[in-house]
Write a structure and sequence with these properties.
- The protein is mainly alpha-helical.
- The chain is about 60% helix and about 10% strand.
- It has a two-stranded parallel sheet with strand order 1-2.
- Strand 1, helix 3 and strand 2 form a beta-alpha-beta unit.
- The longest helix has about 40 residues.
């Protein structure tokens, strides 16, 4: 991957500040909720314009899976943690092999240990409640 790819990624709207919520920390609770709600309302229309590209990505992924391929979520910070969580949910939710979909994240060992301790209860106890909660 050349530097031009990283330059393109850096220009993505998802990697910039949202001017609508720039001063969200100075708002009261109702104003914060209205900002979040207004941004949430925009999501379906934006997704609708991307459906042809999403469909192509899904078709490529299905083809890769049918030929023994795997999916790796790779990220840092919150996006990395969300990829790890999503990958961890695939085996119990969809019955996938744990090797088929994996999450790789650039974060500290402490964070992984903390995450593991939170994830182990649901995995180990299935539908049984965590004692003391």
């Amino acid at each position: 991957m050349g530097n031009h790819v990283f330059e393109q990624l850096g220009r993505l709207i998802t990697e910039s500040r949202n001017p609508v919520s720039e001063d969200i920390d100075c708002k009261n609770t109702e104003e914060i909720l209205r900002i979040i709600n207004s941004q949430d309302k925009a999501v379906p229309d934006i997704v609708a314009t991307e459906i042809p590209f999403i469909a192509r990505a899904v078709d490529l992924l299905v083809d890769a899976f049918q030929h023994g391929g795997r999916l790796f979520y790779i990220g840092a910070g919150t996006s990395g943690r969300l990829g790890v969580l999503d990958a961890a949910e695939c085996p119990p939710t969809f019955g996938t092999d744990p090797e088929m979909i994996q999450g790789l994240s650039r974060w500290s060992r402490v964070d992984r240990t903390q995450l593991r301790s939170h994830l182990c209860w649901p995995v180990a106890s299935a539908a049984v409640d965590k004692p003391g909660m």
